[in-house]
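Retro notes (design track)

What went well: tokenization of the new backbones is finally stable.
What didn't: we kept losing track of which sequence belonged to which structure.
Fix going forward: every design gets posted as structure first, then sequence, in one message. First example under the new rule, 244 residues:
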């Protein structure tokens, strides 16, 4: 598995394998391995990584091979020293950092559970857990220059509406109808334990959102979320969407 930061706040990525309890630190300038980080003390096989470049932290989703009662956990690493700062076996799911790096949102896509942690210095403090039991197929974090408080937008094969998770809400919001997405359990989202299908994306300013569902590709204005701005109805089986 190759874990790379989306932005240029950090000059390192990681290489790992789901059957090895280690991460290899990759210098993105020289493209050479600079360190091997053993995760064996935590029985941790890396499944997913979230980069918190501003705080100098890395959150690792751990698969635990030798503990059937607690098959997952979350490990927090210092990005510079590679030292472990915290390990929590009660946190399960794929970590996603909000764009302003104020929060870490951990998503259990098959269960529809959202765990919100606030990033305070070198610590993660639990803020809330939202249990909706609405499995997600794809999602994107969102906080760019907006005051709506939404942290995440998602698509589900069990709902035909756009899903929003708000920082102060105790439940999700269902916005306008976009159509359902396919339940891709054999896709990279579940095989690699990452949300990398890119079926939903916000632009860099956070004004617009594009997504792909059964009704076609839609574009929404995030400042007026009552209805999609436009829809392209004849595009089927879209694999990836990118803003240029």
């Amino acid at each position: 598995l190759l874990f790379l930061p989306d932005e240029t706040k950090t000059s390192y990525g990681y290489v790992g394998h789901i059957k090895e309890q280690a991460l290899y630190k990759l210098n993105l300038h020289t493209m050479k391995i600079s360190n091997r980080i053993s995760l064996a003390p935590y029985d941790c096989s890396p499944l997913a990584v979230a980069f918190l470049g501003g705080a100098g932290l890395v959150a690792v989703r751990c698969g635990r091979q030798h503990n059937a009662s607690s098959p997952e956990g979350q490990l927090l690493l210092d990005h510079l020293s590679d030292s472990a700062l915290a390990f929590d076996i009660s946190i399960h799911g794929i970590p996603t950092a909000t764009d302003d790096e104020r929060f870490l949102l951990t998503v259990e896509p098959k269960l529809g559970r959202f765990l919100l942690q606030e990033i305070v210095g070198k610590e993660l403090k639990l803020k809330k857990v939202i249990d909706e039991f609405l499995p997600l197929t794809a999602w994107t974090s969102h906080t760019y220059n907006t005051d709506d408080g939404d942290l995440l937008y998602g698509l589900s094969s069990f709902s035909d509406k756009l899903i929003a998770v708000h920082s102060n809400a105790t439940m999700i919001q269902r916005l306008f109808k976009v159509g359902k997405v396919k339940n891709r359990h054999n896709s990279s989202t579940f095989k690699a334990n990452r949300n990398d299908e890119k079926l939903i994306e916000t632009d860099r300013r956070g004004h617009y959102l594009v997504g792909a569902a059964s009704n076609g590709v839609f574009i929404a204005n995030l400042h007026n979320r009552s209805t999609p701005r436009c829809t392209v109805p004849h595009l089927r089986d879209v694999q990836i969407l990118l803003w240029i």
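Added context from the reviewer: Residues 138-244 form one domain.
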